[in-house]
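Exam revision sheet. Question 4 asks you to relate a sequence to its structure. Input first:
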Amino acid sequence: MARLEGSCGDGCRRQPRRLRHRHRPQGICYRADLFEEAGLPSDRDEVAGLFPTWDAFFQVGADYVAETGNPFIDSANSVLQGIVNQLEYSYEQPDGSIIATTNPEVRAAYDAVVDRAIPIAAFSGQWSEDWFASMANGEYAAMLCPPWMHGIISGTAPDIDGWDVANAFPGGGGNWGGSYLTIPANGSNVEAAKDLAAWLTSPEVQLKAFVNVGTFPSQIEAQGSSDLSDFTNEYFNDAPTGQIGIDRANAITVAPYKGPQYFQYHDALQDAVNRVFDGQEDKESSWNSWIAQVEAF
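Answer key, structure tokens:
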């Protein structure tokens, strides 16, 4: 089988069991104007220094909310995604054993999101009509931001000129997204499909895709191109998003294992966060509800 790499968020369901760790590296997109109004640094290099750890990220967010009365981050569950994507093993292990409810790293991620991300978040999840409208209206100041998110922001809020990108991600590096298409061995045009896949995933075509829509190239050869390292994004105040992507990719040290039931467990954990955010359950009750769901799977 040949795999065709594309781009999407973790809402996609075409991912294999292991991600290539240089696929969709994350930085921090932020509103420089809103940072400045809140008394925070607005220069992208200074902003990058604000977020060495998740604790630091949450503290900046809490300070922002205290100063402005407005949400800092767009979504609590985007933070859950960011933290879980830094775990080598989250819900399953390669031998098929299920560690979801007994993994202390998963519990720590849930606790951090409920205790510290929910209070600074505008929404529990992403992709709702309200989430898009809030982005366009400038109602939150920061987002965890893989390169493919750049086009979503600029397309949703074309008239806002305060967005920028910081070369930082709490805890080092993190991957978010990636899709794969397979070519069945018994297809009617297998060789032509392989040729197409090879062309679409070639370094030169991946570079064109990045320039056009922000899909960061997974080919290491492409990451050495000056077409990437010299690229700047006019919408994001001419941020050097190509070099930022390269640096963020190099900061990734973990290739998360995503087994066949990963999305079941993760979606259910996101639902647990949703319930707390919406006031339907408290933290412990919602965690126990998640445990019951996992056991039912």
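Marking note for examiners. The first strand starts at residue 3 and ends at 6.
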